[in-house]
From TrEMBL:
This is Beta-lactamase family protein. Residues 1-20 form the signal peptide. Gene3D superfamilies: DD-peptidase/beta-lactamase superfamily (3.40.710.10). InterPro entries: AmpC-like (IPR050491), Beta-lactam-related (IPR001466), Beta-lactam/transpept-like (IPR012338). Residues 28-338 form the Beta-lactamase-related domain. The keyword Signal applies. It comes from Flavobacterium tagetis. It holds the Pfam family Beta-lactamase.
Length: 352
C-alpha cells in the first residue's frame, strides 16, 4: 500500500510539472508569434500558477541598444496604480480607519468645500468604482497643451476648482472612468495616515513585498524601457504630480508577480485587503466593478483585471483566485488593442 501511495504521489508531481511546462510553452508561443508579427513592440510577460513563476520577454530596451527586455526591465504600469491605491484603501478598512460606505465629506482635505447638493452623497466606494459623478480632468485638452507631460499643468487649484464648483452629480451611480476620483482617494489616504501618498505606498506595499525595482518619483535607471506612442514616436515617461494615485508607478514583471503573489495569499495584509476590493460595488449590463477592479464571471471562472495606458505604454494585470493564477503583460508602446488581444488569446487557449 505504501508503495502504491508513493507511486501515485510521484505521478501527481510529474503530471503537475508537465502541466506547468505545457502552460508556459503555450504562453511563450503566443508572445513569440505576436513579436514576430510586430517586431517594433517590446513586451514582457510574467505568469504565476500555484506559486510557480514564469517569464518571457521580447524586444530591446531601445532602438540604439542591443540590451534585451527581460523580467527586470522597467515599464509604466500607469492606471494599474489605481488598484494599488484601492488596495491601500482596503488596508485602511481592515485597520478600522475608514469604511467603504463612509461618505467622503469628513475625509477630504479642507481645500475642498462640497456644495450642499453633494453633501453626504458620495461614498469611498463610489470614488473607487468610478461612479461618483464628479467632473474629471479633461485629458484631451491637457494632451493638446503638452503631449509629452499632460498632467504637468494639473495643480491643487485645478482640482479644488473642479470639485468646489460642482453643484450637481448628473451621472451619480453610473460608471464613468475617473482620474480625479483616485486622486481624491490618495488625498484621503494622506489625511488618514498623515503621510504622503509616496510614503504610504512604499510602507504598505512596495517595501513589505520587497518590490525592489518598483519606482515612484525617481525612475532614472539603466534598465528602463523606451515608450512609444501609437505611431511609433518616442514618448517620455509620465512625471506624475498631485494626480499620482491614479498612475504613478513604474515597475517590471518580476515585481508585479510579487504583487500578484501577495494578492493571492489571503493571509497577507495585501491579500486580506484585496478580498474587500474584489466585492462588487457597481454593476450594469456591461460590467461589474470592485474597488478599481473589473470583474468578469462565467460558469467556471471569476477573473479580476485592470489595464493601464500611458501616452507611450500599455499594460494589464489579471488573476483568478480560485484557480490560483495571475498574469501581467507590459508593452513598450501604447497599444490597448494588442494588449487586450494578447490577454484574450492566452486566456482562451491556455487558462480558461
Amino acid at each position: 500500500m505504501k508503495t502504491s501511495v508513493k507511486i501515485l504521489a510521484t505521478l501527481l508531481v510529474i503530471s503537475n510539472i508537465s502541466f506547468g511546462q505545457d502552460i508556459t510553452k503555450k504562453i511563450d508561443s503566443i508572445i513569440k508569434d505576436n513579436y514576430q508579427k510586430n517586431p517594433t513592440v517590446g513586451i514582457s510577460i510574467g505568469f504565476i500558477k500555484d506559486g510557480k513563476e514564469f517569464y518571457t520577454s521580447y524586444g530591446n530596451l531601445n532602438s540604439k541598444s542591443d540590451a534585451k527586455i527581460d523580467k527586470n526591465s522597467i515599464f509604466e504600469i500607469a492606471s494599474i496604480t489605481k488598484i494599488l491605491t484601492s488596495n491601500l484603501i482596503a488596508q485602511a478598512v481592515n485597520e478600522n480607519k475608514i469604511k467603504t460606505d463612509d461618505f467622503i465629506d469628513a475625509y477630504l482635505p479642507t481645500v475642498y468645500v462640497l456644495h450642499q447638493n453633494l453633501e453626504n452623497k458620495i461614498r469611498i466606494s463610489d470614488l473607487a468604482s468610478h461612479q461618483s459623478g464628479l467632473p474629471d480632468i479633461d485629458f484631451g485638452k491637457l494632451i493638446e497643451l503638452n503631449p509629452q507631460q499632460p498632467v504637468s499643468s494639473v495643480t491643487q487649484e485645478t482640482l479644488s476648482s473642479l470639485i468646489n464648483n460642482c453643484t450637481e452629480l448628473a451621472d451619480y451611480g453610473k460608471y464613468r472612468y475617473s482620474t480625479i476620483g483616485y486622486t481624491l482617494l490618495g488625498q484621503i489616504l494622506e489625511k488618514i495616515y498623515n503621510k504622503s501618498y509616496d510614503e504610504i505606498i512604499r510602507e504598505k506595499i512596495i517595501q513589505p513585498l520587497k518590490m525592489k525595482h518598483t519606482l515612484t518619483k525617481d525612475f532614472n535607471v539603466k534598465n528602463i524601457t523606451t515608450s512609444h506612442n501609437p505611431d511609433g514616436g518616442i514618448q517620455e515617461f509620465f512625471k506624475w504630480n498631485i494626480t499620482a494615485p491614479a498612475g504613478l508607478i513604474k515597475s517590471n514583471t518580476s515585481d508585479m508577480i510579487l504583487y500578484l503573489k501577495a494578492i493571492l495569499n489571503e493571509k497577507s495584509a495585501v491579500g486580506k485587503a484585496e478580498l474587500i476590493a474584489e466585492k462588487i460595488y457597481y454593476k450594469d449590463q456591461k460590467r461589474e466593478m470592485g474597488l478599481g477592479l473589473g470583474i468578469m464571471t462565467d460558469d467556471k471562472n471569476t477573473i479580476y483585471s485592470k489595464s493601464g495606458d500611458s501616452m507611450g505604454q500599455s499594460s494589464i494585470i489579471c488573476y483568478n483566485r480560485d484557480k490560483n493564477w495571475g498574469i501581467i503583460i507590459l508593452l513598450d508602446q501604447r497599444n490597448s488593442k494588442m494588449r487586450q488581444n494578447l490577454l484574450n488569446t492566452i486566456y482562451d487557449n491556455v487558462l480558461k
